[in-house]
Amino acid sequence: MAETLFEELKRYVDFGPEDEQALRALHSLAERHYTEIAHVFYDRILQHEGARKALAGESQVGHLKVTLRGWMEQLLRGPWDEDYYLLRCRIGRMHVRIALPQHYMFGAMNILRQELNALVDQEFISVPARHTSVRLAVGKILDLELAIMLHTYREDLLSQQARVERLSTFGQLVGSIGHELRNPLGVIESSLFLLRGRVPSGDERAEKHLGRISEQLGIANAIITDLLDMIRDKPLAVEPVQMREVLDAAAQQLHLALDTKALAALPEVRGDRSQLRQVFVNLLQNAQQSGGPDGGIRLDVESSAGFVRIGVSDEGPGVDPSVRARLFEPLVTTRQKGIGLGLALVKRIVERHGGTVAYEPGGKGARFVVRLPWIER
C-alpha cells in the first residue's frame, strides 16, 4: 500500500511511538496551562495589524482562544492519524480563505514553540533524559504542523489562483456576449408587442404561443442579467439590515411560507438589502427545486464571535461529493436544466459583504450556511 503524505512527513522528521508517548506525558501536565498559553498567543498575534485584519479584529478572540485550546489538546494527546492530518489540512485552507499571509504562520508557530518549551523546561528539567525526549517530540510535532499547513496553503492558493484566472476569462466572455445578446432580444420583444396587437381577439392558440415566447424572453433576459451581475462591481448600497426582513422578502418573492421568528433575535448586519435578498432568493429557490413540491425548507440561525450564521436546508438528495469542490464556480450545476449561476452569484455577493457561504453536508438533503459580520454596538 502506498505511503500517504502524512506518513511520509512523519518518517521525514522521525516522528514515532516514543514521541507520541512523550507528547501524551506533556499533555497531562500542560492541560491546565492551555488557557494561559492561548491568552499569550493572541495577545502577541493581535499586535500585528495584518494578522488582526485577517482575523476580523478582536471580536472573535474569545472564540479563537477556545479553538486554540482544542487544537493544543489534540496536538499533544493525538491520535496522530489520517483524521488528524485532514483536520489540520482544513486549518491551512482556512488561512487561504481569510487571506492570512504565510509569514504569520511561522510567527504563530514560534510563539507556541516558545511557550511549550518553557513548560517542558519547568516540568522536566530535573529529569535530563525525559527533558530531552519531550523537547524533541514538541519540535517534531510543531514541524509536522507547519509542513501540513504550508502544503495545504500552497495547494489551495494555487487552486484559488486558477479559479481567479478562469473567472477573469469567463468575465471577458460574458461581458461581450451578454451585451450582444441584448440587441436581438430587444428586437424580439418589440416584435412580440406588435404581434400581440394584430392577433385576432379570441385566437387562444396564437395567444398561447405569444405567451410562451414572452415567458422564454423573460428567462433569457434573467440569465443575461445574472451573467452580467457576476462580473459587475456594482456599488453596495450599505445600510443597517435586519436579516428577518431580508428572508421574509425573499420568501415572499418565491411565494414560500417560512418560519422566520428565530431571525428576529439576530443582530443587524451592514449591507445592501437588495443584494442580500438576492442571496436568499437563490438559496431558497435551490432548496425549493431540490426538495420538490412536498419537501420542507428549514432555517437555522446563530450569532457568535462577531458573525450571524443562517443555514438553509432542504429535504432533497443533497449534493454529489464529486461536485462539492466546485459548487460555487460559474457554470457548475447539478440540475439538468440549470446553468450554474445562482450559487456563484451568492458567493460573490456574500464575500463582498465580508462574509462566507459554505455547503455543510449532514443528514438528509443539502444545507448552505451564510455567515455575515454583525454590527457592533
Describe the structure.
By secondary structure, this protein is of the alpha+beta class. It is 64% helix and 9% strand. The strands form two sheets. It has a four-stranded antiparallel sheet. Strand 3 (298-304) and strand 4 form a beta hairpin. Helix 1 (5-13) packs antiparallel against helix 8 and helix 2 (17-30) packs across helix 8.
Briefly summarize what is shown:
The protein has helices spanning 5-13, 17-30, 34-45, 49-54, 61-77, 82-97, 102-124, 128-198, 204-231, 243-253, 273-291, 321-324, 342-352, and strands at 238-241, 269-272, 298-304, 307-313, 356-359, 367-373. It is α+β, with helices and mostly antiparallel strands and 377 residues long. α2 crosses α5, α3 packs antiparallel against α7 and α7 (102-124) packs antiparallel against α8 (128-198).
Ordered list of secondary-structure elements with their pairings:
Elements: H1 5-13, H2 17-30, H3 34-45, H4 49-54, H5 61-77, H6 82-97, H7 102-124, H8 128-198, H9 204-231, E1 238-241, H10 243-253, E2 269-272, H11 273-291, E3 298-304, E4 307-313, H12 321-324, H13 342-352, E5 356-359, E6 367-373
Helix pairs in contact: 1-8, 2-5, 2-8, 3-5, 3-7, 6-8, 7-8, 8-9, 10-11, 11-13
